[in-house]
C-alpha cells in the first residue's frame, strides 16, 4: 500500500523570494497502541500477553532512564531524550530555581537502520485531489458527504475526523456529528480512543 504525499509552499518572511515547494506525507490516520500490539501478535506469532508485557516493560524502563536525565537508545529504532522549559520568562540565570523549570516534551531521533528500513519499504504516490484537496468544496447535503467519505474509504483503510472535515469542508463539530450519525446507521465503525480514533467501513 502506497504512502500518499503532496507538495506545499514553504513559508518565507515577507519580502523574501519564494522557496521551492516541499513534499509532505498526507496522513491516513493514527494506528492505536492496541492495533499495533495486535499486529505484532498476529505477524510475529507471539503470545498476546507477552507482547503487552514487553511493550509495558520498555515504556516503563525508558521513562525511568529519561526521568534521570539520560538519552536512551533502543537498538534498531533510535534515540529518545527530553527537553525542558521555564514556566515563566527569565532574563537572568540567577532568577531560575528548580521549581521554575519543567519537562517540556520527549523527543525521538530515528537511527540510521530504522530510516533505511522505512525508506526501503515506502512506496510513494501523489495524493489524489479528490481525497486530499487543497480547497475542498463545501458539501451541504448529508448524502453527498457520505458518498465522498465512502469513496475515500474505498481507497484508504480508514479516515480520521480531521480528514473527513477537510474532505467535505465542514467544521470539526459538524464532522463529529456526521460521523456519529454514520456510526448509528451502521455505515462506519469507530476504532481506537482519544487522539487515536479512526473510522472504518461498517
UniProtKB/TrEMBL annotation:
<dbReference type="Pfam" id="PF18291">
    <property type="entry name" value="HU-HIG"/>
</dbReference>
<dbReference type="InterPro" id="IPR036388">
    <property type="entry name" value="WH-like_DNA-bd_sf"/>
</dbReference>
<keyword id="KW-0238">DNA-binding</keyword>
<dbReference type="GO" id="GO:0003677">
    <property type="term" value="F:DNA binding"/>
</dbReference>
<dbReference type="InterPro" id="IPR010992">
    <property type="entry name" value="IHF-like_DNA-bd_dom_sf"/>
</dbReference>
<protein>
    <submittedName>
        <fullName>Uncharacterized protein</fullName>
    </submittedName>
</protein>
<dbReference type="InterPro" id="IPR041607">
    <property type="entry name" value="HU-HIG"/>
</dbReference>
